[in-house]
Amino acid sequence: MFFVLSNLMNAQDSTLNTKISELEKEKSKIETEINELKKQLPVPVKPTWTFKGNFSANIGQTMLSNWAAGGFSSFNFQAIGHAEANYEKGRHTWLNSIDARIGFVKNYDPSKDVDLPLFKNADQFLISSTYNYSMSEKSQWSYAFLMNFGSQFIKTWDANNSELLVSDFFAPAVLNISPGLTWKPKSYLTVFMTPASGQFNFVYNDFLIQRAEGAFGNKQNQNIRSEFGARVDAIFEKEVIKNLSLRSRLQLFNNYTRSDRDPSGNTRRWNVDITSQTDIFYKITKSIALNFSWLMIYDDDILITSKTGEKRPILQIREAFGIGFTYGF
Fold first, then answer.
1. Which of 109, 134, 148, 290 is 20 to 30 A from 255 (CA-CA)?
2. Distance (Å, rounded) from C-alpha 88 to C-alpha 178?
């Protein structure tokens, strides 16, 4: 009896092993056919041009009526835009961006029934273009050529005298042209550096440049002032957490050609011009977002009247916070 059961079990195992062997052969044949078909599929082509950007608009209002503590009714508006057009093929990349912002504020004094003029509180645009040629296929370093141009859109008038012009389109304007190196250790961090950067400062407004003290670092009747020095331009752009995006840009420039001294006799040769722009966006819904912007500028050539009446270089800061409509692509 035991002998019969043993033979039956051996026969069943043999049948199963045979079936498994046949299925494995079929599996191998199917996998071979799949691989052959995959080879016939067209290779996906990565787009050479990519485009992205975002736009936001904020509106705010304060209204006072018979308000004993005093104050102003106000209306403010600010629009911010950023767009990129980037090319990438092999070891070549060409990065292009435009940043623009403009804002206004309108105040009304209810105690005197005085409608105050519309004033501008933000006006800026920056065009940036950088060509990179990677040192190798996977290198973090590239040979690069950078061009930055920045100015504003419309005239700005003095807040205390609406007939006194403060600045204008191309007054001032700054153009940077620089060969150098780009370091990109992460997808969200890019650092451009060069020991040989040309900077050109423009003031093309007769009223501003004909003043005895000149304007924006340019001397009287000096429409173009050129500088040559070292530059660092760092850009950080990342979605830090879900729905919270941060874009920050830091620009540093040191002018080799400076030979003047401050009133105390100290050389200004080692002074560094600083421009730092940070924008933070937090999406509440698909179309509504909180946004915060911070612009900091220090330029040793631009003299600002301090609270004591002294004209000297001063750190310039502009901060804005708002909630409004946003659109991205």
1. 134
2. 21
